[in-house]
Specification:
single chain, mainly alpha, ABC transporter involved in vitamin B12 uptake, BtuC, 14 helices
Length: 307
């Protein structure tokens, strides 16, 4: 394999492996911009991955599977919102509980109904874009992905437009900074926070569903492998920007792809466990680098009391 071929393959794999991070981190940007810190992304992505898999297993439709993953994420988000917004429970505690619930629930359902089948499912197939896919080197790597991977670009653009160019986005950001001012202006802070959480967990569910419907054709316990926690670090490193989350996710996707490709090289004598740890090491390094330098919403993690 030549260096150019290696780099082209690495680039294409990085985008594909970054896709679940892109969806989850952009969704979390919405949530945190409204002051809602949802550390339950890992459990949400697991539920999205399982529901997507189970739906395609039963129906054979990848589209229905993606919708099921999104819906499952939203349902999980509404549970989080009820406890943290309506009841005003601690957001960290509720998020941690949802992670445990997602891991336990998906493992139980998979072992009960699917572990003995051994059947895979139909997944989204690569789409060759005319002309672009025939470009030398990068053409095959970048322009022969499936539609879920391609959709990350319009999702990032649309999220940026909504947050910075619409009244809804302006109000959503104000809810995370000065919720009292939003309330005085006659806007419902609770409704905006519920909406932000629903958008965030819906995208996280979609990111989880991609793992079983666009990357693998099978569900396994813990298939997310910490991606929900990495998505939280991506949001901080990206300074709560959807476009920033897109590019930072690509960086983490690059490390995911690099460790897989290095493991396949017989000449590499580094223990594979160290290579597998690369994305997580980078997460720690990232958090250390941005410590104290962020511009987090001032009311992040704080419940709002209108009284």
């Amino acid at each position: 394999m030549t260096i150019l071929t290696f780099l082209a393959t690495l680039t294409g794999a990085a985008w594909r492996l970054a896709t679940p991070l892109i969806f989850a981190s952009i969704g979390e940007v919405f949530s945190e911009r409204a002051g809602m810190l949802n550390i339950g992304l890992e459990g949400t992505m697991l539920v999205g991955a399982f529901c997507g898999f189970a739906t395609v297993f039963a129906s054979g439709s990848v589209l229905l599977g993606l919708l099921a993953g999104i819906l499952a994420g939203i349902v999980f988000g509404l549970v989080f919102a009820f406890f943290t917004i309506t009841i005003k429970a601690d957001q960290i505690v509720v998020g941690a509980a949802l992670n445990l619930l997602g891991m336990g629930l998906t493992a139980f359902l998979f072992r009960t109904y699917y572990v003995s089948t051994g059947r895979g499912i139909e997944i989204a197939q690569p789409v060759h874009l005319p002309w672009l896919s025939d470009l030398p080197f990068l053409g095959e790597a970048l322009f022969r992905q499936n539609l879920i991977v391609y959709s990350t670009i319009p999702v990032a653009i649309l999220a940026t437009f909504i947050l910075y160019r619409t009244t809804f986005g302006l109000t959503l950001r104000a809810v995370g900074e000065h919720p009292k001012a939003v309330d005085v202006a006659g806007r419902n802070v609770t409704a905006y926070r519920y909406a932000a959480v629903a958008v965030g967990t819906g995208l996280a569910g979609l990111g989880g569903a991609f793992l079983t419907l666009g990357h693998s054709n099978q569900f396994v316990e813990g298939i997310t492998s910490g991606r929900g926690f990495i998505a939280l670090a991506v949001v901080v490193f990206a300074r709560w920007s959807p476009v920033g989350a897109f590019f930072v996710s690509l960086l983490f996707g690059l490390f995911y792809a690099l460790q897989l490709m290095l493991q396949a090289q017989a000449s590499i004598v580094v223990p594979y466990q160290l290579l597998q740890a690369l994305p997580y090491i980078m997460t720690i390094v990232t958090l250390v680098m941005v410590r104290g330098k962020g511009a987090a919403p001032s009311k992040l993690g704080q419940p709002y009391d209108a009284r």
